[in-house]
Amino acid sequence: MHCPLCFLAQRQAKLGLGEMPFATVRAAIENALKEGLREVIPSTMGEPLLYSHFAELLELCKASGVPLNLTTNGSFPGKWGTEEGMRRLLHACSDIKVSCMGFDDAVFSEMMPGGDFSQWKSNVERLVSLARTERAAAGAEPVSSISLQVTLHKKFAPVAGAVHPILYWAQSIGIDRIKWNPAVFLSTAPDELVRQYALEPDEIQALKSQLVQSAMSCKVRCEGSLFFEPAQESCGEDSIPCPFVDELWVLPDGSVQHCPNPERRYGNPASPAAQCSRCLMRCAPPRKL
Known about the structure:
Strand 1 (68-72), helix 4 (83-92) and strand 2 (93-100) form a beta-alpha-beta unit. The strands form two sheets. A five-stranded parallel sheet has the order 1-2-3-4-5. Strands 6-7 form a two-stranded antiparallel sheet. The chain is of the alpha/beta class. It folds into two domains: 20-228, Alpha-Beta Barrel (TIM Barrel); 230-283, no CATH class. 36% of the residues lie in helices and 12% in strands. The chain is built from ten helices and seven strands.
């Protein structure tokens, strides 16, 4: 799949940094365990379940007593789409977030080329059903929560009506949480891409208002950057500590970064959005509805 909103697409790069050798993964986790590692987030510019060493990663985390926090596009390739594979993920992860970039055939196909909306829904429903069964049978053994990670953009048709169908479906099948995140654009993103997909401030505000009202009668917890409030002071430079100060981002070559701001990594590190005082990710604690 080649999502048009991927940061690699926004910087118009055809390739990322390649697949991380498993020796690098092992060294990073072993080093982080000494500092109190709490969870591992296999974050990529692609689908984590396609990582050739993903099964080994699960085993390493299990042996280390560290859960995974997984975000997947919902395709569940290969063995991960089987009942056994899904069950294995449910017992290895603290949360499984399934990306949602469109909630009808046309938009889904545009945002996730090669994907099938009906199959995506079926995969999510199977995962949630399995999670329910495993929770009933597992006793004290933890079973992953299931979340949707919704990327809001102009192609949700219509944007103002995108909220209710997703909320209704998520509640009906037993989703635990939805993260609502307006699409992020780098300073290097092509103007045409921004024009096609970026939400206007009034559209974002309308979505926020709609969700605040709808979530009151919904059992699904609603979170995400849609509800972030801008910090009044500069994170990381003045009195407010960076909210990501306890996170480490390990790159395929083994180098480590402490800042997740995509503008620094994929865009223009010299741009205002890459500076702490105007960071794309700087915010006060998020609201939970």
